[in-house]
Design a protein that fits this description.
mainly alpha; globular
Length: 134
């Protein structure tokens, strides 16, 4: 990544901001899981639960979007404003109220959105997204 690749730089900033949101939401999901099932024994166990346990299924759409964004950023192809528009569209579907596929995500996100870490991380990724040129 070079300074001559401003879209990649900006998308990288967005990816970082989304990771902070994901971490804040995961912290709540983990706490809920531990309340119901007991302490999670280590990062590897948590990773496996996030991938496989139904309790964490609601978080997977955000995880998948972030993985796709990372693949785009890591690609060798030149990035264009089309990539920015695609990310805007995907985030709009995930956080908007119209796509029923993401209703579980939105319900759980709404439960935690007033937490200070979630609120701050949410404000940050939205700020970064709004600053992207499209």
């Amino acid at each position: 990544m070079t300074a001559s690749d401003p879209i990649r730089v900006r998308l990288t900033g967005l990816a970082k901001a989304l990771r902070h949101l994901h971490a804040a939401l995961l912290e709540h999901a983990k706490s809920d899981y531990e309340f119901l099932n007991g302490k999670i024994d280590g990062a590897f166990t948590l990773y496996n639960l996030v991938l496989n346990d139904p309790h964490f299924q609601w978080l997977r759409p955000l995880s998948g979007l972030m993985a796709t964004l990372d693949e785009v950023i890591d690609s060798k192809e030149p990035l264009t404003t089309r990539h920015i528009q695609d990310v805007r569209t995907a985030l709009g579907l995930l956080f908007g109220q119209t796509d029923a596929r993401f209703a579980d995500f939105r319900r759980e996100y709404d439960r935690f959105r007033e937490d200070s870490k979630v609120r701050d991380a949410d404000a940050r990724w939205r700020e970064v997204l709004n600053a992207l040129e499209a």
